[in-house]
Fold:
Amino acid sequence: MTDFWFYLKEGVNHILDPDGLDHFYFIISFCILYTFKDWKKILGLVTAFTLGHSIALFLSGLEIVSINSDLVEFLIPITILLSCLNNFWILLKDKASKTQLTTTYILLLAFGLIHGLGFSNYIRIMIFDDDSIVLPLLGFNIGIELAQLLIVTGFLAIISLFYLLLKSNIKWVRLLVNVSICLLVLKMLFE
Structure:
């Protein structure tokens, strides 16, 4: 069971690592449109991303899938930009339809696959000595889910505070955060 806790901590550290801000930006980008009252939607979105991440890590851990790491490192910021573009579309329309929410779930699942592939080389090295990849991947992915939910909770608390202060101007705060993420991600792409 100590292995499980080790991998759970590794999953949490993977998301909260200050050198890996791409995860932070991505998580903020897909929860920017919501408040605490939308917790079921947010939980579904976070889980869709983690599911995609888990599938990619599992397939990579079994050496079924392998992809050029440079390509994946280029695609990760692209996924964040696409998430932000989706936000612009919804913010400018002032409301997300059920179709857009379904599309967002599918996008997050696909983006989770890409983000998981970005970490696949490390996970293969990390679980190399284990007979089974199930326990390490389970612990790691639960750690990822917990860290993502921690970030979402913190961000929603900040958005709620802005909502209390600005009421009807919250749309502009969301747009500003979205633009900021876009600029930071564009910088990542050029680096």
Q: What stands out?
A: The CA atoms of residues 42 and 188 lie 26 Å apart. Residues 2-190 form one domain. The chain has one domain: 2-190.
